[in-house]
C-alpha cells in the first residue's frame, strides 16, 4: 500500500520541507484587484504584504474541485491512497472539496482530514503523517493518530490592527474604532472549527505574554513542537523565538508566517504561537 500526503498552501510548509517529506501541496488563491494568484506558487508572503500597501483588501478562494481531481488523478498513477490534510472546515470549504473530489476519482482512496486549525500547526499534521507513512503505516492507521494529536494541538493569534477584520466583515466599524482607541489587541483562537475571540487584551506586549502563559500551562514541561507565526514581522518573531527557547528547553521552536490567504484576514503585524505534542 503506497500512501501520498497532500495539504493545502495555508499550512505554509517551506518548499524544501515539503520535498523532504514528499508532501504534495494544493494552493488556495488570492484575488488582488484584477489579478488572481495561487499563493505559495505565484505569490509569496513578502510579495503579498508589499502589494496590499497600495491595493484594496484582497479576496480569497479555495481550490476548485477540478484542481483536486487533477491532483488526485495524477497521484493515482503512483499511489493507492492519499491523506488530504486541510485548514479548518469552519473557515474554508477546502476540506469538503477534497472529499468531493475523492469521490470522483477512481483508482485511489482519499482520506480527508480536517485539522480544525491553519498555518504551520496544520503543517505539523502533514509532516507527522508523512513520517508515519515512512514508518510503514497505512492511512487507516494514521488517521486515528492525527485525531489523537488534536488533543495536544492549540494556536493563538494576536491581531495588531483591527482594520482588516473590520474591512473583511468580521468586526463592525464601531468595534474597530473603539478597539483602536483603547489599543485592544484581540487574542483569537480556533474553537469548534471557527476563529473566535479568546480574550481582549489592552496592549501587544500583554497579549504576547498571555500566549506564553497558555503555552506554559498546556505543555507543562513535556516535549512539544511549537511555531511562532508572523505577518511580515520576521525580526520580531526571531527575537521572540530566542526568548522562548531560553525559557522552554523542552520545546522545539520553529518560525513560520501568515501567508497571503490568512494574512488577508488577519492583517500585517499579526503574531501567533501554535504547538503540538511530540509523539
From TrEMBL:
GO molecular function: lipid binding
Keywords: Lipid-binding
Domain of life: Bacteria
Keyword Hydrolase belongs to the record: no
Annotated PANTHER family: DEGV DOMAIN-CONTAINING PROTEIN DR_1986-RELATED, FATTY ACID-BINDING PROTEIN TM_1468
Protein name: DegV family protein
Protein's organism: Niallia alba
Amino acid at each position: 500500500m503506497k500512501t501520498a500526503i497532500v495539504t493545502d498552501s495555508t499550512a505554509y510548509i517551506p518548499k524544501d520541507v515539503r520535498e523532504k517529506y514528499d508532501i504534495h501541496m494544493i494552493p488556495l488563491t488570492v484575488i488582488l484587484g484584477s489579478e488572481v494568484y495561487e499563493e505559495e506558487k505565484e505569490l509569496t508572503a513578502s510579495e503579498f504584504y508589499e502589494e496590499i500597501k497600495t491595493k484594496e483588501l484582497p479576496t480569497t478562494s479555495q481550490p476548485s474541485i477540478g484542481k483536486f481531481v487533477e491532483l488526485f488523478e495524477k497521484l493515482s498513477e503512483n499511489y493507492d491512497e492519499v491523506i488530504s490534510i486541510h485548514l479548518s472546515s469552519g473557515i474554508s470549504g477546502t476540506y469538503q472539496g477534497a472529499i468531493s473530489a475523492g469521490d470522483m476519482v477512481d483508482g485511489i482512496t482519499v482520506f480527508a482530514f480536517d485539522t480544525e486549525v491553519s498555518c504551520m500547526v496544520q503543517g505539523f499534521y502533514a509532516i507527522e503523517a508523512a513520517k508515519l507513512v515512512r514508518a510503514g503505516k497505512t492511512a487507516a492507521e494514521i488517521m486515528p493518530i492525527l485525531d489523537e494529536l488534536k488533543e495536544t494541538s492549540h494556536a493563538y493569534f494576536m491581531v495588531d490592527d483591527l482594520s482588516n477584520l473590520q474591512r473583511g466583515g468580521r468586526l463592525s466599524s464601531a468595534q474597530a474604532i473603539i478597539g483602536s482607541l483603547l489599543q485592544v489587541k484581540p487574542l483569537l483562537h480556533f474553537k469548534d472549527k471557527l476563529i473566535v475571540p479568546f480574550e481582549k487584551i489592552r496592549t501587544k506586549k500583554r497579549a504576547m505574554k498571555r500566549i506564553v502563559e497558555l503555552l506554559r500551562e498546556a505543555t507543562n514541561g513535556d516535549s512539544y513542537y511549537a511555531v511562532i507565526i508572523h505577518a511580515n514581522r520576521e525580526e520580531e518573531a526571531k527575537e521572540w523565538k530566542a526568548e522562548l527557547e531560553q525559557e522552554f528547553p523542552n520545546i522545539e521552536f520553529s518560525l513560520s508566517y501568515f501567508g497571503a490567504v490568512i494574512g488577508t484576514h488577519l492583517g500585517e503585524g499579526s503574531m501567533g504561537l501554535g504547538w503540538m505534542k511530540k509523539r
